[in-house]
Every structure is written in C-alpha cells, then in structure tokens.
Design a protein that fits this description.
This protein has 187 residues and is an all-alpha fold. The chain has one domain. It is built from 5 helices and no strands. The chain starts with a helix and ends with a helix.
Amino acid sequence: MTRSPVASAASRLAHIRRLSRWMGWACLALVVVLPITLMVYWATAEAPELAMQGNLPATALQAPLQAWQRWACAAVTAVPLGMMLMGLRQARRCFVQFADGQIFTAQATAHLRRFAMWVAAAALGAIVSGAITSVLLTLHNPPGMRHLSIGVGSSQVLTLFFAAVVWLMADIIGQGQSLAEENDAFV
C-alpha cells in the first residue's frame, strides 16, 4: 500500500517538527551544561592535561598552577564557549520555528546565518584563547621557559568549514524562499 503524496508530506512535516522539538531541547541543555563542564574541568584537571588547552606539551608547566591561573584560563576559554552558546541560542530559535511548522521563513534563515556566524567566531576565538592560555599557564615558569603558543588544529578548521556550509545552506534556503515569494506574486 502506497501513501498519497499529501499524507507523505504531512508525515515528513510531523517528523521534522518532532525532531526539531528534540533538537531545541538539546540546544537548551548544552547551553546549561557546557559552562558548568568548563568550570569543573578547569577546577579539577591535572596540569599536563591543561597544558594541551594552551597548545603546549604536557611538560611545559614548570611551576605548580595557582588557583588564579586556573580561573583566568577558564575565563579566557569561556569567551569562545560563550560565542558557541550564542550560536546554540540561534539554532534553538530556528528549531523552535521548525517545531511550529515555520520552515521556509526569513526568520529561520536569519537564525541559521547567525548560528553560522557565531560558530565561526567561536572557532577563531578558540585560536586566540589558546594563545592567551599558553601565556597564563606558563607565567610562573622560570625566565626562558615561558611560552606563547599559537595553534590552529583540525578542530578549528572543521568548525570553520561547518559554519561555512551552514551559511551557504541558509543562503540557498533564503534564495528559494525569495523565488517562491516572487512566483506567488505573479499568480
């Protein structure tokens, strides 16, 4: 037995709405959990593990880390995380619209673009925060053993690529929406 095109479209829309509701809740959960996780990580992780956050070898930290260094590094790494959280807020707004059945709207497209922008900003911010973190972590090392390490890894490159893909998809959806509105005007 085959479904009618109308029933099939309604089924797909219901699936999109249901999945979008879940994704909206997932975005909200990440907005709450990620900052807590960041603080716990910087409060409890061992120095060699923290060195990796500054693009440093595990042996780069010559002096014991002080509490202020951990919290300063947490604050520095919270900046790109904050940018990512802003992106997640935009994604959530987009998913809420999708859950309400508003799929091809200018507002949803704008949310997708802003999501892509914030994700790209977070990737670039992570590069800068890694460099600042390397300085903060090695500040109490003896002279000549302090570091400024700038690193660009596959994580940042893939995140920038992902942001570009989402931006392009938002542009394509926006173009399709403009064409549909133009066609409606002729009818």
